[in-house]
Amino acid sequence: SRLPAHVRNYFRGGPSIPSGPQRAQAWEAARQRFDQFASMLEKNNSGDGDGVVSMGRELSYADFVLASVLMWINRVSPDDGWIQVCQWSGGRWARLWERCTPYMNVL
To answer: What pLDDT score does 12 carry?
Structure first.
């Protein structure tokens, strides 16, 4: 229901969204994976990076791929999912979102 009307016609559904403790476990598993990914990206920040983008200081294709996942979470996550993601990994994903925002064309 959170997708734009012109896209809903093409959405075929998928696995149902878990509820209660299962939902909390799913979010925790996602957080762990995002934190793991953030720790890998930190290895690229060998003092010459800003700790936001994947390849030092300049945005790259990889950053836009990540931003597209973040955009999807922002648009379709139930409840307060996006608010949670913004706080993960010390706020890294919110900072990446902010860096990519000037290049986004959100419909």
So the answer is: 61
pTM for this one? 0.77
Question: Rounded to whole angstroms, how far apart are CA atoms 62 and 58?
Answer: 11
Q: What is the distance between the alpha carbons of residues 38 and 95, in angstroms, rounded to a whole number?
A: 12
CA distance 101 to 61: 14
Helix (H) or strand (E) holding 6: helix 5-8
Q: Quick check: 53 and 96 in contact, CB under 8 A?
A: yes
Q: Which residues have a Cβ under 8 Å from the Cβ of 14 and sit 6 or more positions away? A: none
Tally of CB atoms within 10 A around 55? 14
The conformational region for residue 60 under phi > 0 = left, psi -120 to 50 = alpha, else beta, is: beta
Q: Within 17-101, where are the H helices?
A: 20-42, 61-76, 81-87, 92-100
